[in-house]
Each structure stands twice: as C-alpha cells, then as structure tokens.
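Listing S7. Sequence submitted for prediction.
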Amino acid sequence: MAAALSAQPIGGLPAGTGALALDTYELTKRFGGFTAMDRVTMRVEPGTVHALLGENGAGKSTLVKCVAGFQRAEEGSILIDGREQDIANPIVARALGIGMVYQHFTLAPGMTVAENLLLAGGKTPALIDWKKKRAELEAFLATTPFSLDLDVRPSELAAGEKQKLELLKQLYLKPRLLILDEPTSVLTPQEADEVLGHVREFARSGLCTVLIITHKFREVMAYADSVTVLRRGKAVHHCRVVGTSPAQLAQAMMGGEGAVAAAPASSPSARKPVAQDAPVALKVQGLKAQGDRGTLALHGLSLSVRAGEILGVAGVSGNGQRELVEALVGQRPRLAGSVTVMGQPYDARRAENHRLKVRSLPEEPLRNACVGDLSVSENMALRDFDRPPLSRGGVLDFPFWRRRAREWIAEYGVKTQGEGTPIRSLSGGNVQRAVLARELAGEINVLIAANPVFGLDFAAVAEIHSRIVQVREKGGAVLLVSEDLDELLELADRIVVMSEGRVVFETSAAGAERHVIGAHMGGGGHAEPAVA
C-alpha cells in the first residue's frame, strides 16, 4: 500500500465533525491466492447515501472492512477528506469518525440495552452515574425512530430489535461516516423506511456520510444518491441513482444475466388460484405461548393454511412471530390451543414430522437447523439418518449419506469444498441451500418457513423463492413468516398481520394495499379476526 500520511486523524488532531468524503484508490485485498478485492476505486461524496451492490462474494464486505480497519489491503489507498490514511485497526477508524453496523450481531447478550449503548463508546468509566446516563440515553432515543426498553437484554430481543440496537450503538457515537451492512435484512418495510429515512436525513443534514450494502433495489432507488456495483472483486459500475434503473443495476451485478436472475419466482395473480375445496393442511386454534420474559407472547392465535396455498404472516418484529414459529416446530412449549396437520393432532414430535410430512426452514439456519461442527453430508442426513436407505438393520450407511449429499450439493448449487466440510464454514446462503435440500426432499404437506432469505443476495433469494413456490404448486401448504412485506406480496396467496401476539387482519395478496397492511402492522388498524 502507498505510504500513508498519518495513522492518526488528519494532522494528528481529533476527528473533525460533519460528513466526511471517502475515496478508495485501486484498493486490493488478497487471501492467499484468492483476490477478494481487485483495484477498487470509488468516490463517496460527503453528506450523501452511497449504495454498494453485488452478489455474495463480490467483495462488498471486504471493501467496507478495510475502510473500517478490520482488514488491511495489500495495495492501494484510502483517503478521508482528500488525505490518505493508514486505517490500521478499528480504533483508528473510530478516531476518524468511522462507524460500522454489521450484518451479524455484535451485542453483549447478557448486558442490557443501556449497557450495550455505553459499551459502544469504548471508554466506560469505573463508576457510572446511572441516573444521569439513563436520562442521556432516553433523550438520545427520543431523537430516533426507535423505541427500545433500556433494561431489556439482547437475548430477549427479536432479530429486528437487535438490528435496531446495532444501529443505535453507532448513531449514539455521532459518526462522520456510517457504514451499514444489510441494515434492513430483519426489518419490515415500514421499519426499513423509518431506519433509512432517518439515516438519509442524518446524511442530508451534513452530519454524516452513509455507505450502505444492500441487496434491495427498492431501497437503493428510494434512499441512495449514488451507487457502486462490485462483481468478482472489481468495481464495474458507478452511477447516480437518478440516472439508472433496477434492471440496469441487476445487469451490472450479473454481467448481463441480472434481468433473468432478478425476476420474481411468480406472482399471486399469475398463479393458479387455491381450490375452494382444498383441504386445510395446517390449522392453528387458540394458540397461547409464553415469551422469553415470562409474559404471554401469543394470545389465543388462530389461522389456517389450505393445501396448495402460501399464507404470509406479516408484522413488526417482536410481535410474536418468532414465538409462533417456535411453538409450531416444537422449540417452545404451548400453553393452550391446538395444532392439526391434515386433520390430525400435531405436537411437532419427530415421528409426527415424518408421518404427517411437515418440514421447516427456520430463521438463522446455522443456529436453528444445523450442527455447526458436523459435515455438510451429516447435516443433510439429520432428518432421516436412522431410516432406510440411510440406515440398514440399525447400521448407518455413511457412503450413501455422502453420495446423496453430493447429488444435493450439485442440484442446489451449494458452494463447498466437499460434502465432508463442516457446515459452519459455509456462507449464510450456502448453509440455507444445504438446509433447503434436506427439508424439501420428498413429499411435503406443510412447510413452515421463517425469514428464509435473511441476509442473502438477490440471486439466492430468487432461487429459494422459486423452491418455496414449487412446494405450493405440488399441493403443499406453506406458512411463510417474513418481515419483508415485498416478499409476502410476491409469494403469498393470502396475508395475515400479527400484532401483539394476535392475528389482527387478513387480506388476499392480489388485493392487498401496502398502506392498509402497514397500518395494521403498526397497531393503527381496526382489528379484524382472520377467517379460519
């Protein structure tokens, strides 16, 4: 790398205030023989929102980690306000006014929201005047669109609430450059609009520059000023948002194949309608379940899904969706109510899963659907390892496991060094593909999917959506719980809205009005019970 003028903020003085200008010049980063970032030159104007687009593995995270001091490039330069800086570590980046919100959570799970916010500064006094600090934190929260309980612990928060806390940690430090890595992956469109609207206003006030990694073209077109597209480690396209379109950006990302890859899996209006006499495959009646803090999270919830139907469940994060999924798949006790599959009682036991053909695609699959230290082939066998042909006469047939895993790896495009690789070493998208291969094999009566494309690039999203629609087309019932309203509008036949642990609204997807759904998600709509 070219010699830096200073490893400290410009002129050795404390970091300035206000939005900064960022330039990278021929920035190159290698991992052994692999070039993750190849001579990337990019200009981010001060006081703007600049989007980074590209498939998984395109070099986006590598680029921002170099800017944030978590990795060091072998060649090229990083310039802050026109002056070259050697950002050797995150402490130097923080001194320059650079803050970053990661896609994966970096919270202290055993500490409260208030304690996590104070820890973000890195200079916690030995004695804390909590009365004064709480007043400061409450005043700070009042300036943001978020509402979080200062006494709650991250382990008790839903994924969307954790993401808000990650963003709040950085906003609390008043950064000059705020880097956001997939900040809305676990937020509803309403929450995302709040977050991105707040961030955009923060940038336009001249207080901060924003560099955002996203896979959502809607967010780029609505909130970004400029965009840089990376492909295979190279910066291949730079433009102002006002002069481009999603189709052009997709084409730049995919090298001419983007328009096909970005096409929706299907749409409710284009699909064969659900048969009126189709049997009810999944029926939930009066379901009650406790939340992590001991209070009731599900208040007598009822819903039903017919064979050959996708029912979408919308809601602001933290309104019982996680508890609903966990109660259905056996990860959380049910206090009251009943669940039936194909008219038979369903308690989510393993034998019932096999007999009634129930499958699930959970949120955070590496944590909820895999054993990280086991191999890809072993994880693919978790559902039926003790049944023929994977087991014969009580003897596990490991060669068969491996052969089937190789077939699924090829069919689902799982990128791995081999079926014997520990599954924790795979990227998020490839873990999800491996879980998909296992869960979608064979006949399916009911598929329960929770945020199935969380954090994945748009090409992986299109593939997984297509697989889910195939379940519907083959006569399976799909319960799709998602915090992305766009996803629900694209895939679902019907949509119900959850608020405070209840189903408060129902509509057909074809006739859905975004603002009406949003009002019910925010608790502002008149409660209407779902039709069972």
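Caption to Listing S7: primary sequence and predicted structure tokens for the chain studied. Residues 367-441 form one domain. Residues 1-15, 256-263, 526-532 have pLDDT under 50 and may be disordered.
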